Amino acid sequence: MSANKARTLFDKIWDSHVVERLPDGTCVLYIDRHLVHEVTSPQAFEGLRLAGRTVRRPDATVAVADHNIPTTDRSAGIAEAESRLQVETLEQNVAALACRISRCSIRARALCTLLAQSSASACRA
């Protein structure tokens, strides 16, 4: 990139995570924070188990149930069976692989986007 051309925030973040830039432009990136949620993480955790692997950086991996939790009164738990199963599976996977989980409360709903911002200092490599 030209020294005179302004760099976007995306460019700055990208460049700070490049480990290697290959001649064809492909970049190998270091990911210093990994956020997982209850919807698609079961497949990822199962893939790790089948391959006999663990989470490489459990200290930099934070799980949050933010798709299937009620947005109103949570005192009765999760009514829908499939949603409840996804959250329970996330909790089991996190416990088995020693990752952290962020618990949501009514007053502080932990969405992955907000969690990423608020936990950045705690997750630094």
Describe this protein's structure.
Helix 2 (41-50) links the parallel strand 3 and strand 4. The protein has one domain (33-123). 37% of the residues lie in helices and 14% in strands. A 3-stranded parallel beta sheet has the order 3-4-5, with helices on both faces. A two-stranded antiparallel sheet has the order 1-2. By secondary structure, the chain is α/β, with parallel strands linked by helices. The protein contains 5 helices and 5 strands, in the order αβββαβαβαα. It has helices at residues 9-17, 41-50, 81-96, 112-118, 120-123, and strands at 18-21, 27-29, 34-37, 61-64, 100-102.
Write the SSE topology.
Layout: H1 9-17, E1 18-21, E2 27-29, E3 34-37, H2 41-50, E4 61-64, H3 81-96, E5 100-102, H4 112-118, H5 120-123
Parallel strand pairs: 3-4, 4-5
Antiparallel strand pairs: 1-2
Brief descriptors of the model:
alpha/beta; 3-stranded parallel beta sheet; two-stranded antiparallel sheet; 37% helix; elongated
